Amino acid sequence: MRKQELYNKVITYFQSAMPVAETELHYKNPFQLLVAVILSAQCTDKRVNQITPPLFEAYPTPEALAAATPEAVYEYIRSVSYPNNKAKHLVGMAQMLLKDFQGEVPDTLEQLVKLPGVGRKTANVIQSVVFNKAAMAVDTHVFRVSHRIGLVPKTCTTPLATEKYLVKYIPESLVATAHHWLILHGRYVCMSRSPKCETCGLNGICQESLKSKIR
User: Fold this and answer.
1) pLDDT tens digit sequence for 131-148
2) pLDDT digits (tens, 9 = 90+) for 25-41
3) Catalytic residue, candidates 3, 139, 168, 211
4) Average pLDDT over residues 190-212
5) CB atoms < 10 A from the CB of 166, how many?
6) Mean pLDDT value across residues 39-59
7) Is 100 a catalytic residue?
8) CB 182 within 8 Å of CB 142
9) Per annotation, catalytic residue among 86, 99, 121, 213
10) Is 121 a residue of the active site?
11) What are the C-alpha distances in Å from 117 to residues 12, 14, 155, 214?
């Protein structure tokens, strides 16, 4: 099967099986989503959603968060992974938003990655979810699923290489949605351990499942 044909079949499946695909993080504005995505690094969305309501109540704006201390923020986020670093990043991020971006979340990769706690993956999430740009954020789920299905070759050994390969074959208008398709598929079907291959709708075309049948 040619690569584009595989992509077309995968896209057709997801369009049917998952017509609505969006972030599971809870937020009301771009600032809240930025905070939530920073917190979600190496942490589950479920955990983040549990701690953000009181955090957002205490620090509803960049101004409020910028005026806080990392020690104070830590008390709200202590149950996430790496809370000390993330507390420092959140306060620093809010301060930079005020200093350099008039308190508004920027919409470009170059500007977003300047913010403390924001790497390429986080920046791409913000670009795709908030600004509906064709940005492919590659987290562990996207990386795993795209390799298992066969969307990317083994030579794509980094998130950046995987990102660049995926956007070559996915129509620009679908990149933002495809990001969520792959994440949700990895979260609930194609898990790292014990993937649900038997009930997966991609069983007949997934390269990993085809290899298993040959064995």
Assistant:
1) 999 999 999 999 999 999
2) 999 999 999 999 999 99
3) 139
4) 88
5) 21
6) 96
7) no
8) yes
9) 121
10) yes
11) 35, 32, 28, 44
